[in-house]
């Protein structure tokens, strides 16, 4: 998942991301390392937060734009 790259591009910490999304910082860390996989609801939160498609987040495409 591209979560870490997106977060670093925005220059925000795991803690800031966790606070913005009402999540735990440890959860963000586990998603970034692949220790845990995000559920559908969490993927939507990440995609909306970074304004990218879920497919981009999951590395299924290199196009970050949301197709609407």
Radius of gyration: 11 Å
* Spans of at least 5 consecutive residues with low confidence: none
Q: Determine the number of helices (DSSP H or I, runs of at least 4 residues).
A: 5
User: Cα distance, first to last residue?
Assistant: 22 Å
Strand proportion: under 5%
Concise structural overview:
About 55% of the residues lie in helices and about 0% in strands. It has about 70 residues and is an all-alpha fold.
What does this protein structure show overall?
- The structure is a single chain.
- The chain is built from 5 helices and no strands.
- By secondary structure, it is mainly alpha-helical.
- It is globular and about 30 Å long.
- The two termini are 22 Å apart.
- Helix 2 packs across helix 3.
- The protein has helices at 3-9, 14-20, 25-33, 40-50, 54-57.
- Helix content is 56%, strand content 0%.
Please give the structural blueprint.
Blueprint: H1 3-9, H2 14-20, H3 25-33, H4 40-50, H5 54-57
Helix pairs in contact: 2-3
Comma- or semicolon-separated keywords:
5 helices; 68 residues; globular; mainly alpha
């Amino acid at each position: 998942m591209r979560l870490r790259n997106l977060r670093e591009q925005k220059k925000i910490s795991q803690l800031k991301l966790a606070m913005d999304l009402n999540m735990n910082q440890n959860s963000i860390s586990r998603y970034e390392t692949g220790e845990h996989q995000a559920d559908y609801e969490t993927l939507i939160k990440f995609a909306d937060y970074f304004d990218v498609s879920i497919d981009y987040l999951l590395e299924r495409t290199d196009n970050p734009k949301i197709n609407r």
